[in-house]
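Researcher: I'd like a candidate sequence for this fold, 81 residues long. If you have to choose between options at a position, lean toward the conservative one.
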C-alpha cells in the first residue's frame, strides 16, 4: 500500500496519474471502507510509483512521519523499557 485516500475522487485522480505513467495500480477497499481507499502497485514498481507520487504532489515528506498518536504511544513504550 502506498497511500490511503479518504476521498474516492482523489484516489481515482492519483490512480489515473500513475497509470498514465505506466504504473499498474489498483485499490483495496474501493467500495467502502472506514479507513479509506488504499492505493497499491506491483512490488517491482513501488520505487517508481513513490517518485511519481512525490513529483505529482500526491505524497509529501510529512506523510511518512508518525502521527501524534504514534509519537505518544512510543513515549509510553519507551518509559517501560
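Model: Candidate sequence:
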Amino acid at each position: 500500500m502506498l497511500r490511503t485516500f479518504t476521498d474516492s475522487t482523489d484516489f481515482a485522480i492519483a490512480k489515473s496519474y500513475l497509470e498514465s505513467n505506466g504504473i499498474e495500480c489498483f485499490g483495496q477497499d474501493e467500495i467502502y471502507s472506514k479507513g479509506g481507499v488504499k492505493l497499491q502497485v506491483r512490488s517491482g514498481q513501488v520505487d517508481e510509483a513513490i517518485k511519481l507520487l512525490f513529483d505529482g504532489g500526491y505524497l509529501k515528506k510529512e506523510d511518512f512521519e508518525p502521527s501524534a498518536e504514534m509519537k505518544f504511544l512510543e513515549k509510553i513504550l519507551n518509559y517501560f523499557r
